[in-house]
Amino acid sequence: SSSARMLMGQDAFIKKLERRVAAVAHLPVSHVEQLTVVRYRAGEFFKIHHDGYFRPMTCLVYLNDVAEGGETEFPELEIQIKPKKGMAIVWRNATDSKADMRTVHQGLPPSGEGSEKYVINCFVNEEPIQWVSDERIRGPLCENPPPEVRIVEKKK
């Protein structure tokens, strides 16, 4: 898979999605990490993992329909979710800062010639996030990011 992180509040769509995710989590938008767009080509996958106890909630937004494969699988819960354009799934990763290992999951590969899956990972952190403007720390972003980065100070 390949991915690109968006800047917080990068455009109207990103701002709206961040606000919705924060509302579902019942936390301020400052707890929403940089949104990450991920592309899976035919045969590409994301191995089984847990999103972390420090991320009490994850929201995964599907950006396209996938004809075959591409499900998000939660093996401990015996659930597979088929991608549908515009659909989002939300789950809790932790309770009382303890990881809920039932939520380990994986992105199964889309199958079929030319098949692709696009998603947005929306992670909610238990703490407010400080956004870093230094690309060496932040990692690559989408082309032509806005010229300024807002810094959200962590409350003490």
Q: Strands, helices and their partners?
A:
Elements: E1 2-5, H1 12-25, E2 36-41, E3 46-49, E4 57-62, E5 72-74, E6 79-81, E7 88-92, E8 94-95, E9 98-99, E10 105-107, E11 116-124, H2 135-138
Question: How would you characterize this protein structure?
Answer:
By secondary structure, the chain is mainly beta. The chain has two helices and eleven strands; from the N terminus they run βαββββββββββα. Helices cover 12% and strands 30% of the residues. The longest helix has 14 residues, at 12-25. The model is unreliable at 132-154 (pLDDT under 50).
Which short descriptors sum up this protein?
156 residues; mainly beta; five-stranded antiparallel β-sheet; four-stranded antiparallel β-sheet; 2 helices; 12% helix; 30% strand; disordered C terminus
